[in-house]
Amino acid sequence: MENFAGVGVSPGRVIGPVRHMPMPVSEPPAGERHDTPDAPEQAVAALKVASKAVQEELKRRAGIAKGDGKAVLQATSLMAADPMLLKSAAKLINNGMSPARAVWEAGASVAEMLHNLGGYMAERTADVLDVRARIVAELRGLPAPGIPASDTPFILVAEDLAPADTATLDPGVVLALVTSGGGPQSHTAIIARSLGLPAVVAATGVEGIDSGTLVFVDGAAGTIALNPGSDEEAAAEAYRAAAAALTVFGGVGVTSDGHAVPLLANVGGAKDAVKAAEAKAQGVGLLRTEFCFLERETEPTSEEQIEAYKGVFDAFPGKKVVVRTLDAGADKPLPFLTDSSEPNPALGVRGYRTDFTSPGVLERQLKAIADAASQATADVWVMAPMISTAEEAADFAKLCSNAGLQTPGVMVEVPSAALMAEAILGEVSFASLGTNDLTQYTMAADRQLGSLAALNNSWQPAVLRMVKLTVEGSAAEGHEKPVGVCGEAAADPALAVVLVGLGVSTLSMTPRALAGVGAVLNSVTLAEAQRIAGLAVAARTAAEARDRARAELPVLESLGL
Ligand code: PEP
Ligand code: MG
């Protein structure tokens, strides 16, 4: 039996046939002409047939899709028959251009026009570009781009997934995700965890697996085995049974000896918050406010902001909700705040630093958060992303206080903040460790790069030492401030135990992870967690830290985690 190995980023064991993500559609050559110059109407008719076929297929898929995916597919299906798109393409065809090139150019013009209109219309730009690629694929007889449509379950193999692809990912049909690129903190990994799908990233060579081949994916071990036998079938069956039992979180995060560790949710808006409350999260540990306004060309108005934040607060009456101010930049560009031409965006003007270049936006956001908080009963805490110095922490605390917000905090995701935790925590009320960025900056490894996945691993002892330093700084003489974790590390049950052992007071994660983390945490005493943390921090490598911790937590194996 042949095996492939990568980095396991979302646990679970499943067997299924492989389907590959089709190659992106390439641009038809400029100047490509159709072959019926005397009868351009035939070429126009071919375009119409192709656009109709694309529309019908998208409509069919919208009919069976659920949630966000349904809305995305409906919007795209309308765009496929857009009269403006077809009319401008027909004009180009009448001048001799091939239907594929014509729809490509017409799509570009429509996209540019929508982009210039701004607001809601600008957000449709991606739909037009998606539709033109689908029409070109149809005209060329190539597979449609995006996640393959299928009525039977499969394991999706891709180089990496774009955010737009994942919007149409149906977890009822996709059994697991395997990528040859992508890192543990990549978009694919975060989505897989939020959907509860087993996933392996950075698995070199998987592009070569024949479509339809039956494989066994182990999302905890990070392995893919071809042509599984009875052992793998038994493991997949055992996981199915364990997963069914592990879907419910009791609503209280606590060690077996009664040490409380509230388990909170990471959310991107009101819809997520409602789901998180249903999953019994004890509050929100990270509201990524930039997710409410991604791709916006202009600063959201105060009314829009109040509505977005209040929707989250109302899902958690009387409970803690930690709002993070806009974390724009690098992998999350907000066109009204960030400069896409920066040579090195992860080290550039992102997060709190946008206050240097666009003063006023942060103050207006804090005011909107305070206004929304005054209309709700949630216990609202506010934190700034990418804080690097004690001066920045002090300035942020002042802005919060001016806005009438009582509980200011910082994210610790830059190594300087971990090293200076004592001084920084002297200025604010709490800290939250953003282990995704803290890992990328400690290891100097882009979190989106599959080729650096081994470095970009929060089990790296250097990262664990950063966590330890931060907690020690928070407990310095004169003040005792809570330190939570809201990076993906908190969603890994074994790593969660290590973090609690290091002194972290809350863990915030995708709601899907609550039950698993809750169960494993409840299987150890605080003293055991501290001992396991000691073993992990003293390890020489990430693999050794992980193996040492997992060896002390046999419950993981029995829960299939
Ligand atoms: C982090 O960096 O760990 C974090 C929680 O922030 P984000 O993933 O949104 O950058
Ligand atoms: Mg971050």
From TrEMBL:
GO cellular component terms, A-Z: cytoplasm
Cited InterPro entries: PEP-util_enz_mobile_dom, PEP-utilizing_PTS_enzyme, PEP_util_C, Phosphohistidine_dom_sf, PTS_EI, PTS_EI-like, PTS_EIN, PtsI_HPr-bd_sf
Enzymatic reactions: L-histidyl-[protein] + phosphoenolpyruvate = N(pros)-phospho-L-histidyl-[protein] + pyruvate
Localization in the cell: Cytoplasm
Domain PEP-utilising enzyme C-terminal residues, every copy: 254-522
Pfam families in the cross-refs: PEP-utilisers_N (PF05524), PEP-utilizers (PF00391), PEP-utilizers_C (PF02896)
One GO BP: phosphoenolpyruvate-dependent sugar phosphotransferase system
Active-site residue list: 187 (tele-phosphohistidine intermediate), 486 (proton donor)
Residues noted as binding phosphoenolpyruvate in the record, renumbered to the chain: 288, 324, 436-437, 447
Keyword Transport part of the UniProt annotation: yes
Keywords, alphabetical: Cytoplasm, Kinase, Magnesium, Metal-binding, Phosphotransferase system, Pyruvate, Sugar transport, Transferase, Transport
Similarity annotation: Belongs to the PEP-utilizing enzyme family.
Its job: General (non sugar-specific) component of the phosphoenolpyruvate-dependent sugar phosphotransferase system (sugar PTS). This major carbohydrate active-transport system catalyzes the phosphorylation of incoming sugar substrates concomitantly with their translocation across the cell membrane. Enzyme I transfers the phosphoryl group from phosphoenolpyruvate (PEP) to the phosphoryl carrier protein (HPr).
Protein name: Phosphoenolpyruvate-protein phosphotransferase
Organism of origin: Arthrobacter cheniae
Classification of source organism: Bacteria, Bacillati, Actinomycetota, Actinomycetes, Micrococcales
